[in-house]
Amino acid sequence: MKTTQEHHDRIAKMTFASVYPHLLAKVEKKGRTKDELHQVIQWLTGFNNKHLQQLIEEKATYETFFQKAKLNPNAHLITGVICGYRIEEIDNPTTKQARYLDKLVDELAKGRKMDKILRKG
């Protein structure tokens, strides 16, 4: 699917606080833990638990969330299709980073090994 400016704007304006409960529910439903979810988020963004909680409390938008993140240098290794979009073809940085997070959470929920999710080998 091709992304549009409206799609990019919608992603940028979503708050991390509104998405986080869905991410957590998705992984817990499949037997994974909150700690594993936080490990994946920290790997991608550099945010520790305290910083994540602050971003949730201040209702940071995805745009702000990813602007404050120190994206992992190996994030570019996250490829494939998520939500109908091929990650490698997304040209908007915020949308691409949001899809990186979606893809990592999806892999976690599907039971993939943490080393593979964190692109260690």
Structure description:
The chain is mainly α and 121 residues long. The chain has one domain: Helicase, Ruva Protein, domain 3 (Orthogonal Bundle). 60% of the residues lie in helices and 3% in strands. The protein has helices at 5-13, 16-29, 34-45, 49-57, 62-68, 93-109, 114-117; strands at 81-82, 85-86. Helix 2 runs parallel beside helix 6 (93-109). The termini are far apart. The mean pLDDT is 95. Pfam families: DUF2200 (PF09966). This is DUF2200 domain-containing protein. It comes from Pseudopedobacter beijingensis.
List the helices and strands and how they pair.
Layout: H1 5-13, H2 16-29, H3 34-45, H4 49-57, H5 62-68, E1 81-82, E2 85-86, H6 93-109, H7 114-117
Helix pairs in contact: 2-6, 3-6
Features:
Helicase, Ruva Protein, domain 3, two-stranded antiparallel sheet, 7 helices, 2 strands, DUF2200 domain-containing protein, UCP033199, SP1917_dom_sf
Q: How would you summarize this macromolecular structure in one to three sentences?
A:
Pfam families: DUF2200 (PF09966). The chain is mostly helical. 60% of the residues lie in helices and 3% in strands.
Q: Which percent range describes the beta-strand content?
A: under 5%
Rounded to an integer in angstroms, the radius of gyration calculated over CA atoms is 13 Å
Q: Indicate the structural class.
A: mainly alpha
Number of helical regions: 7
* End-to-end C-alpha gap: 29 Å
Instruction: List the helices and strands in order.
Output: HHHHHEEHH
